[in-house]
């Protein structure tokens, strides 16, 4: 541990370094990058010590990092139930266990999402009043990153769950960015009140009653996400996952076309040379690394899922996010907002929207 | 009517020229562009004659176009039910009626989607065996355009409807492109058989049994659409609409960033001048006009919905598509494929998947 003044003590982050597509080197290098770029964190790696030690030794900034040796790791193809039953010696399990025991305050993992969710729920439990967790995604817009949830924790969400997602997502955005009143929108097929499922229309009404303090802007459509029309976009995990991946696919397609155009002719190549600095900035904007890191909202802890294919830069974003969320007291923010909404519903039975929706 | 040999007789297309965001001029100019670029069509415009005649007079290629005067038009905000009850003198109604009466063989409209669907269903009826229509979207990929359906005719689709969408979408793609065995994928959140809704998993199984001749490749994810992993991507109208709009939003975001990069500095501006030809090609690729035109599959006719905000180029794509679909016998293709699948299901009762799914 690095010695600092108590109020600036580094936040201990557990990094599950195994079970990703990119291999442990990306996790180790990513954690090193996060520290180099100023993340206030102390890292504990979970995984095969004989693999991790030589990798860690390559980064001076990781001199004080810890390693907890784990004999096994979770494979991408492992079923969550299998991991719950037989995965107690895996790096994923050990990392979450360390958070439960208070040895780390957040965990970053690039492993099997379903297993990470199951292990997190089992060991950390859920925040009071939350039945199902939601996974967040950061989405780039001209106005900065917005948050979309759920992007895949559950394929379905009922009315009450959508309302809970909205409350958690708003608190998450507030903790991450410091914005006092983030705007919240419900993803739908039309902006008019009449369109879309009954479920979403009911959720909109319930949300207005349950949390009148929220800057709820009603329905947003798919194209509104990239415009930044809402800071927080709420949907079920099936729709959110498909929206996110469809958008990623489209961005990648356009990115490929740009590359083609820039090298299509000798003149184009010469032109690209002239604008090389500006093109580099463009490339960084499109780079998915900057938005890597999905947070499991509703779980009673801080668990950040890094993309299984994320490179060191992407891992660095996820580690920095974990440190920011702990530093900003995000868990408390979520629990307190939920408790407040619940208390209000109980005090005003006729408009007790969340209860009525059960 | 232009006089030609019988087998190359122009296909009569009705164009509802009213009720769009862009106004009648875009519809008239679009139809003219379609003819100029070789579409084998004879146009009849439906709308306000005093508005349309002067617009038509501006295009020599429209010298033989007809106009059917209509006293009213459908507004974007009109409820479909209102149009069904009181819309008989609107340009939309008259255009679809002309198709019912055989005076035109296809209709292109940029008006109110819900009303167009309702009027089409009421007047033209549905193809035998189809309960609900689906709207198609063309989606650009590096391998050419693919078809996604449903993108918004219905917010929900049951198992049988998804199977019907797949069969209709495949026939549509075959008619549009001439490809004998288009590949078909079901949109889902994961490629593994275990992920996603029961509904989609069941639809996959039913589809395999119902139409073993189809090149069904199983599940595809959101990012697979832009890759061109399947020629036809099948989903419900809610999910399809959100996938399409999320992707459009992301493409527009990246497009905006490109524009910024190309003008960010004097050097960048100079560079863009050098590659102006290649950038123009890039712009055309990103241009949504080239993929304008959603077809109402399942309706017993050929109805092409042009985007309400489409410019003349976009309208031209929609008019050309209408002519191609009639020319290639797309309605017969759809009905015959559906009849074949139904006949097979009836002949083999134990594996009578479509029936069992009802």
The CATH superfamily of the largest domain in chain A is known as Isopropylmalate Dehydrogenase
Low-confidence stretches of chain A: 1-7, 349-358
Please write the string of helix (H) and strand (E) elements of chain A: EHEHEHHEHEEHEHEHEHHHEEHHH
- Across the major sheet of chain A, the strand order is 3-2-1-4-11-10-5-6-9-7-8
Provide the β-strand percentage band of chain A: 5-15%
The CATH class of the largest domain in chain A, by name, is: Alpha Beta
Main sheet of chain A, how many strands, which sense, barrel?
A: 11 strands, mixed
Oligomer: homodimer
Write down the Rg of chain A. Answer: 21 Å
How would you characterize the overall build of this protein?
Two copies of one chain form a homodimer. Chain A is an alpha/beta fold and 358 residues long. Chain A folds into two domains: 1-125 and 299-327, Isopropylmalate Dehydrogenase (3-Layer(aba) Sandwich), CATH 3.40.718.10; 145-291 and 330-358, Isopropylmalate Dehydrogenase, CATH 3.40.718.10. Chain A contains 14 helices and eleven strands. Chain A has helices at 24-36, 49-57, 80-86, 91-100, 113-124, 159-177, 198-210, 222-227, 237-262, 266-274, 276-286, 312-327, 330-347, 353-357; strands at residues 11-16, 41-47, 66-69, 106-109, 134-139, 146-149, 183-187, 215-220, 232-234, 294-297, 303-305. Chain A has an eleven-stranded mixed β-sheet, with helices on both faces. The first copy, chain A, is globular and about 60 Å long. The relative contact order of chain A is 0.16. At the A-B interface, helix 8, helix 9, helix 10 and helix 11 of A face helix 8, helix 9, helix 10 and helix 11 of B.
């Amino acid at each position: 541990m690095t010695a600092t003044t108590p109020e600036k003590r580094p936040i201990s982050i557990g990094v599950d370094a195994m079970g990703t597509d990119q291999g442990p080197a990306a996790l180790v290098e990513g954690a090193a990058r996060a520290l180099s770029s100023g993340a206030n964190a102390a890292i504990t790696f979970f995984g095969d010590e004989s693999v991790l030690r030589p990798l860690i030794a390559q980064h001076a900034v990781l001199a004080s990092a810890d390693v907890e040796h784990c004999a096994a790791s979770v494979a991408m193809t492992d079923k969550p139930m299998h991991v719950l039953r037989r995965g107690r010696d895996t790096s994923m399990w050990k990392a979450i266990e360390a958070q439960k025991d208070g040895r780390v305050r957040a965990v970053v993992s690039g492993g099997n999402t379903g297993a990470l969710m199951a292990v997190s729920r089992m060991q950390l439990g859920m925040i009071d009043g939350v039945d199902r967790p939601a996974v967040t995604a950061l989405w780039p817009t001209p106005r900065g990153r917005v948050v979309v949830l759920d992007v895949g924790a559950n394929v379905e969400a009922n009315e009450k769950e959508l309302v809970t997602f909205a409350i958690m997502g708003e608190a998450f955005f507030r903790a991450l960015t410091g914005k006092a009143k983030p705007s919240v929108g419900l993803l739908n097929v039309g902006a008019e009140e009449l369109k879309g499922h009954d479920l979403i229309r009911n959720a909109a009404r319930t949300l207005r009653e349950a949390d009148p303090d929220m800057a709820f802007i009603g329905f947003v459509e798919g194209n509104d996400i990239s415009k930044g029309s809402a800071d927080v976009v709420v949907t079920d995990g099936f729709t959110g996952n498909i929206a996110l991946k469809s958008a990623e696919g489209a961005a990648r397609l356009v990115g490929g076309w740009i590359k083609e155009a820039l090298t299509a002719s000798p003149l184009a190549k010469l032109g690209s040379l002239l604008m090389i600095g500006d093109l580099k900035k463009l490339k960084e904007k499109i780079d998915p690394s900057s938005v890597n890191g999905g947070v499991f909202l509703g779980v009673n802890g801080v668990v950040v899922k890094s993309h299984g294919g994320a490179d060191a830069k992407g891992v660095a974003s996820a580690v920095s996010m974990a440190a920011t969320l702990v530093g900003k007291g995000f868990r408390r923010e979520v629990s307190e907002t939920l408790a407040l909404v619940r208390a209000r519903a109980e005090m005003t039975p006729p408009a007790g929207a969340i209860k009525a929706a059960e």
